[in-house]
Design a protein that fits this description.
The complex is a heterodimer of chains A (about 325) and B (about 240). With about 325 residues, chain A is mostly helical. Chain A has 13 helices and five strands. Chain A has one domain. In chain B, the strands form two sheets. Chain B has a six-stranded mixed beta sheet, with helices on both faces. A four-stranded antiparallel beta sheet of chain B has the order 2-1-4-5, with helices on one face. The N and C termini of chain B lie far apart (about 40 Å). The chains are: A mainly alpha (about 325), B alpha/beta (about 240). At the A-B interface, β1 and α8 of A face α2, α3, β7 and α4 of B.
Chain lengths: ~325, ~240
């Protein structure tokens, strides 16, 4: 009999029924292959577009963390993604008191602000006897997205109202290196995605990650085992919001503008589609979904001028009907014994 | 030393008294059978003990601690473990992950490590060591129940509560469960155990002392032979079964 103590982070058991290391290796190879694409693609426009998709993918992972792994269905996560963009925009363009601040400080500020907002919200929704679950939680997140969109619309000169905020900063170090577009932006987005993937993987392999997956499966049992369920949910929610905020902040600086639709229900729904398509409860699935669907949309909108939206809808419905657990969710189940 | 002391415990649901003025004492090393017909109040009493239901009246002492007003997860942290009537495992997690959730420290901030030997011993005990990578949803009903027992055992409970552990099991699975419980008792896996059952033959296999409940009250208490010879028990419970 083997003796000794297991430290949970070393187990590497993030939801795999097959030998756990093999799936991570496949995912890692796929991710590195994606990031290494510039070696074979020389099209700067496409590279730039892929960089945007990488940030979408980081956003999708943040949603998958709480929905796919935690069972907390969110309808308003764009409030954090777009919120990150808005905070950076305000901190770098407003002229008041200590503002504007340098971009790096604004990025830190955006992540902290959204994490604090998520922490406050999570105390409201996860704690006490009135803790929300399932549809109730989804409705609250939906309300947050609606409120965020209205707030940014009505924010006057602070949020730019309907027009949003025109960014004044560029990604990179002025005079040294520009990461605003092309290969530089691609590398920045790729690194951010890689860090998100590794960080979330580590979280899922930790004690908190295992408990989070237990909450998804059977929240009552986790509670009756003696775990602090609200604390674990809060941790995952705040981490998820911070990732979304960082990805959103970088994305909207790259775009040069952030407007109210960035924090609304539309953007919140779109990320759910990416996760569903790729396979929730897997880490590679949301990445593939966040690249595949926007790329399909961009390609079809160029060739089918009037009917591209219908075509995308039909493809999406067909895929979900055939693979209800998404591409990688299906592959995982097929490998199960 | 008394592990559990219940005094005058009462619970009603909209006027229906499910548990009425029940008092009970459980000593160290004891495996108490709790039997009675459907609706006798056995499961309600178990859930009152564990804190899944708040009591209307009465007190529950766990060792030296009055736990009457504590929530279920607080009682779990003090050392109570409950195995549900319907297998309550984590379907999409592997067997090993299910057991880890039992074994991990429950309070945040503590070192997130588990005793590998303990997990291995439980895997062997519930005979699932060879399929440890399998997801719980792929197990048979009986195996899921054993997995749940294993998971709760790894919380190192001082008091183990089992709600109809053979419910839905085949005869062979029931016999294996009886043997498992005897092994646990012999190994002093918990200071004391309460097994709720209405299968009196199963109780005979695992328990020396039984408490019979009828209409929310304790009808009789004693060895299995004593309660089977009790005319009131024969009339109200055993008689009805034959």
């Amino acid at each position: 009999m083997r003796r000794g103590r297991w430290r949970v982070p070393l187990l590497g058991l993030a939801g795999s029924e097959a030998a756990p290391g093999s799936r991570r290796r496949v995912e890692g190879i796929l991710l590195l292959a994606l990031i290494a694409l510039p070696l074979v693609i020389q099209d700067t426009f496409l590279i730039d577009r892929l960089g945007r998709y990488f940030l979408f993918a980081a956003f999708a992972i943040s949603v998958d963390l709480i929905w796919g792994y935690g069972g907390l269905f969110t309808f308003g996560h764009a409030a954090f993604f777009g919120g990150g963009g808005y905070i950076v925009g305000m901190l770098t363009t407003l002229d008041a008191a200590f503002l504007p601040v340098p971009l790096w400080a604004a990025l830190v500020g955006a992540v902290l602000a959204m994490a604090l907002f998520a922490l406050a919200l999570s105390y409201f929704v996860f704690s006490g006897r009135g803790a929300l679950r399932g549809v109730e939680f989804a409705v609250v997140t939906l309300a947050v997205a609606v409120a965020a969109e209205r707030l940014t619309n009505a924010g006057g000169s602070v949020t730019g109202g309907q027009n949003g905020i025109l960014m004044s900063s560029s990604l990179g170090i002025p005079g040294v290196i520009s990461l605003q577009q092309g290969y530089g932006f691609y590398a920045l987005a790729g690194l951010l995605l890689l860090a998100t993937y590794v960080g979330v993987q580590r979280f899922l392999n930790s004690r908190s990650g295992l408990i989070l997956r237990g909450i998804r499966e059977n929240e009552d049992r986790i509670d009756l085992l003696g775990y602090d369920v609200p604390a674990i949910k809060r941790r995952a929610f705040v981490l998820s919001a911070a990732i979304a905020a960082l990805a959103g902040a970088v994305f909207y600086v790259h775009e040069g503008i952030v407007s109210p639709s960035a924090v609304g229900v539309g953007a919140s729904t779109l990320v759910l589609l990416w996760v569903v398509l790729g396979g929730r409860g897997t880490l590679i699935g949301p990445i593939v979904g966040a690249i595949l669907l926007p790329h399909l949309t961009a390609t079809l909108s160029g060739s089918l001028l009037d009917t591209w939206l219908v075509a995308v809808g039909v493809i999406l419905v067909a895929v979900i009907l055939v693979l209800p657990s998404g591409i990688f969710g299906f592959l995982n189940r097929e490998r199960g014994t | 030393m008394s592990v559990l002391t219940i005094d005058g415990l009462t619970k009603s649901f909209r006027g229906f008294v499910a548990v009425n003025d029940v008092s009970l004492e459980l000593n160290g090393g004891e495996l108490r059978g709790l039997i009675g017909a459907n609706g006798a109040g056995k499961s309600t009493l178990l859930h009152l003990i564990y804190g899944r239901l708040p009591a209307d009246r009465g007190t529950i002492r766990f060792g030296d601690t009055d736990v009457t007003h504590l929530l279920a997860h607080q009682r779990a942290r003090l050392g109570m473990g409950l195995v549900f009537q319907v297998a309550s495992v984590f379907d999409d997690l592997t067997i090993e992950e299910n057991l880890l959730l039992g074994a991990l420290p429950k309070l945040p901030g503590t070192e997130p490590s588990v005793d590998r030997g303990e997990v291995e011993r439980v895997l062997e005990l519930i005979e699932l060591a060879d399929v440890r990578w399998r997801r719980a949803r792929h197990l048979s009903h009986g195996q899921q129940r054993w997995l749940e027992i294993g998971m709760v055992l790894l919380t190192k409970p001082r008091l183990l509560l089992l709600d109809e552990p053979t419910s839905g099991m085949t005869r062979a699975e029931s016999r294996r469960t009886a043997s498992l419980l005897r092994e646990l008792q012999a190994a002093r896996a918990a200071e004391a155990m309460i097994v709720v059952e209405h299968n009196i033959e199963f109780i005979r296999l695992v328990s020396d002392r039984v408490t019979v409940m009828h209409r929310g009250e304790v009808l009789a208490d004693g060895t299995i032979d004593e309660v089977q010879a009790n005319p009131e028990v024969q009339a109200s419970y055993l008689g009805r079964r034959h």
